[in-house]
Amino acid sequence: MNRALLVIDVQESFRARPLWDHIAHPGISDPVNRLVRLARANGDLVVWVLHTEPDSGGVFDPAQGHVRLFEELERPAPGEPVLHKTSHNAFTTTDLQRRLTEAGVGELWVCGIRTEQCVETTARLGSDLGYEVVFVADATTTNPIGDLSAEEIIARTTAVLRDRFARIATVDELAAEAA
Could you list the active site residues? Predict the structure, then answer.
């Protein structure tokens, strides 16, 4: 079965927000880069997804210059799509599903920023569409919301996804499986 890694919203827009000072894992680029290298070594498709809010005037407005991948991330290789979405999940406002279908993808690895929002929503929708989903928890991050710490939100997200919408894995576990 073919597989794809979805790198969701690891973009400068988040660093441009005051909440970045409270992010759980500011070094998210390290585990994401490890996943990208692992996916490429496995011959998997890597799909880069950026959130946009055109004409909003905010940090997700492309005109503001923050809608770009973190500088320290691996650069997209030739043939790796960079999709721009305007919804919380990576499917609804992009041609992601068509691309995955054309590539014969049946399994998705998901990672990125806003564990409980765009990454979780993409994992849930991917599961509903019939993909086997692997949620790579240590390659996601988020910030506190209300009385919940970022770590509590990540724990809650993995708990509700586990064995219902996704298999939960770490980068190390996926690397060990590939060895």
Answer: 118
